[in-house]
Input
Amino acid sequence: MNERAPLPAVSTYREAVRAAIREALQREPRAFVMGEDVGRYGGCYAVTKGLLDEFGPERIRDTPLSESGFVGAGVGAAMGGMRPIVEVMTCNFSLLCLDQIMNNAATLRHMSGGQFSVPIVIRMATGAGRQLAAQHSHSLEGWYAHIPGIRVLAPATLEDARGMLWTALTDPDPVLIFENIMLYNMSGTLDIAAGAVDIDHAAVRRPGRDVSLITYGGSLAKTMEAAGNLAQGGIEAEVIDLRTLRPLDDTTIMGSVGKTRRAVIIDEGWRSGSISAEIATRIMEQAFWSLDAPVVRVCTEEVPIPYPKHLEDAALPSRDKIEATVHRVVGR
Amino acid sequence: MTVPSEIKPHLTREHSIALYRDMLRIRRFEEKCAELYTQEKIRGFLHLYIGEEAIATGVMQALTPNDAIIATYREHGHALARGVAMNAVMAEMYGKQEGSSRGRGGSMHIFDAPTHFYGGNAIVGGGLPLASGLALAFKMQNQPHVSVCFFGEGAAAEGEFHETLNLAALWRLPVLFVCENNLYAMGTALQISESETDIHLKAKAYRMPSESVDGMDVVAVEAAARRSLSEIRNGGGPAFLECRTYRFRAHSMFDAQLYRTKEEVEGWKQRDPIKRFGDWLRHSGIAHDADFELLEREVAAEVGASVLFAEAGTWEPVSDLLRDVMTPRAAT
Output
């Protein structure tokens, strides 16, 4: 049983995340929110708007511009018995607290021989598309997925935006949640009873037999559109939403590739050393003999994200690029 | 709540001998560690606290069992003075699973949950945000505990130092910051790395009580710590202690000490905190030759026993390699 603020049947991704935070604060007295401009300003992307009035400044804490200081404070507070939800304005800024995430949050349990865990949730905005140029637009979730000791989530749907936070908050280890900035205004219907979801499994968002399109986060909607267009041309693509980038759900990936025998990975990260490279390698390692074609990728071009709209668009994975790539892989 | 009688150290015979014993335990333990290092029983980095024993010993006297401690990679002394079992510390130096961190941490990462010892942190400045977070957790849960953070003067050049002092003062968190100013950040002298070499003045800029104290005088350190902790426990927010001290040994076992003169080292050795306090005990008639001989024998026996304990310890099986990266979860 849990009390939940009523949700409209139509919701945006932003509202879904806010509802998740509100539910967390209502259900878990140890939970609190901390970050830059989360209170009086309402959040850089307006996710926490209104929560200060509802929960007060003890639980909605505006911090100084000290990423390492307040993320590290979140790590300490988690060890001290609290359940902090820390917001980092964009993942580019998270490099200022990478020390605390990697050297402390991810290692403390191991370094202490299992004596201390760090039940912190760190939310950050990721991705390009709003002409915010090369210091506010990058997709670094693949980097974080490199680090043992943390869990990395990428909610791509309203249900996951609404449901992943609670599950993350009950996880005894650090969980990073990457919210793609292009999703915040995405609207759709969300069940009023929507609640916690699992954070262990990838999801098949569209079944198909000809090729597996493996993606996550901000690229899911583009991939679904591409799959719809491809279906009109007689190519049935199966779309896998990874949902969790660490640990990867190999079973779902290999199950799909074993069936379709072809894989295209769509990743907003840069190609070199990316999560898409990791997935491609795992497919080689685990499903090589099932393949009818080389695994290929649609990634962001290897350039810091440029400001002009046409160049930004050209740098990112697009529906057209996905479709063209699939035609090449399928051979029709 | 601290009662006024606890603000000043009471130099009874019992307490005086305890102070001397605590310092001597650290000194003899570390001398043995240096020997074991040359025998390759202890590997990795080994940073000795020799010369600085008065600080950990003095500060720990003023703590309650529930206060939290964050220390650095030069933390053997803090662990021993806090009451982490010498056997467990020595076994950790060996990397045996009977060690305080089950061998996973080694010399730089001693952790001990029962004594609220949150570790040796080997990123300079990296422990400060954790200390503020622990203090935040205490404050939000209405617990009367204080977190105590030890760090060297080199940390004052790190952003995390400034971010944390600001946050702790802004939110009036119960943290005691203890700067162990031994004049060298590895081999870089204070005057060539800081524009303001009076470190305690930096804390004043953040509007917290701050003082410098003779870190070679265990009684002065204990008195200062009691004063500071009394203010903190009375809700005064954080406080800062700069303890002026000197490391008699090299930075680590790989240090040829090209950056300081033998004369300077010898000069500081004249202020050896153990010899100095021992001389005072002798002259004031509190302790006599027989007492010192007994203490030496007792400490030697404890150190010897810890070596036997570590030697008899066992190696964690390689099959456990991935243990304690994440908290074990039920399969889903």
In short: Chain A is about 35% helix and 20% strand.
